[in-house]
Amino acid sequence: MKFKSALLTQASGSIGGMTFGHNRGGMYTRARSIPTNPNSSRQQIVRAAMTGLVQAFNQVLSEAQRAAWKLYADNTPTTDTLGDPLVLTAQQAYIASNVPRMQLENSGLTDNGNGRVDDAPTVFNHGVAVDVITTPTLSGTNLSFTAEFGGAVTQGGFCQLYVGKPQSASRNYYKGPYQLAGIGEFSQTDTEVEISLTIGDATSYASSYVPTAGQKLPVRLINVGDDGRTSTAYEELALVA
Questions:
Q1: SS3 for 153?
Q2: What CA–CA distance (Å, rounded) separates 105 from 114?
Q3: Total-model pTM
Q4: 90-105 helix and 63-75 helix, angle to the nearest 10 degrees
Q5: Which of 70, 202, 207, 226 could form a disulfide with 90 if both were Cys (CB 3.0 to 4.6 A apart)?
Q6: Which residue blocks in the chain are alpha helix, DSSP H?
Q7: What is the pLDDT of residue 3?
Q8: Nearest to residue 117, comparing CAs of 99, 90, 103, 139?
């Protein structure tokens, strides 16, 4: 249900049985729904990674390393769902920087072990993000495109591709879910990287996420630096050629 409020200009989240949201039509409310939990192997990888990282932060990292993560978190605020600044705790910053690395390490997408980064970044920003992508091209079972960055990335990092279920060409909004599908590794200092994947490959791509030419593919791209900095996400409903 769409509504106007004399008190709220923007609301997001749930209270009791009501969920608030916002789209191009304005604020709306809906009945709160309880999401399903299929407990897939992909979900298990992420949950196991988060559990392991909490243990590592508390039991493996030194006091000096934890202090360095606090310093990094204090100086690199992120944003919440309403776009307001949000300062993470040291543990949250450590987990946010490492979950993509651990997810990739256990995904089967690459033979390279990116591993855990225990030392906090000493550069206080979120690194270089994806700025734009070329039109994804479908050739047989190969889907490829180039991700261009807002600056230069350095060797040792990587760009992770997450995709959602293909949408009709008329669709202009997609909220999720996404799944890890591909990677572009930075073999040198560069301002772009080509990402190519075989669609329908059970290792990297669920069969229900395979697009056809003329559909829009929801893509989400995150750059992860060699020092653990994780960029803001680039999202687009990309029309597949």
A1: strand
A2: 6
A3: 0.78
A4: 100
A5: 70
A6: 41-59, 63-75, 90-105
A7: 46
A8: 99
Write out the E strands in 109-141.
Answer: 130-133, 137-139
d(CA 98, CA 109) in angstroms, rounded, equals: 17
Any bridge partners for residue 195, and if so which?
Answer: 145
What is d(CA 117, CA 99) in angstroms, rounded to the nearest whole number? 10
Task: Give the pLDDT of residue 210.
Answer: 77
Walk me through the domains of the chain, giving residue ranges and CATH numbers.
6-35 (no CATH), 41-105 (no CATH), 130-239 (2.60.40)
Position of tokens 């949000």? Answer: 86
Residue partners of 38: CB distance under 8 A and separation at least 6: none
Chunked in runs of 10, what are the mean pLDDT values of the chain (241 residues)?
Answer: 53 65 63 61 71 93 97 92 85 92 75 78 95 91 90 90 91 89 86 84 60 90 92 94 87
**Residues contacting residue 215 through CB under 8 Å, at least 6 positions apart:** 166, 167, 168, 169, 239, 240
Residues 184 and 144: their CA atoms lie apart, in Å, by 11
d(CA 162, CA 218): 8
Tokens 């949201």 correspond to what residue?
A: 21
Rounded distance, CA 60 to CA 54, Å?
10
Give the pLDDT of residue 113.
52
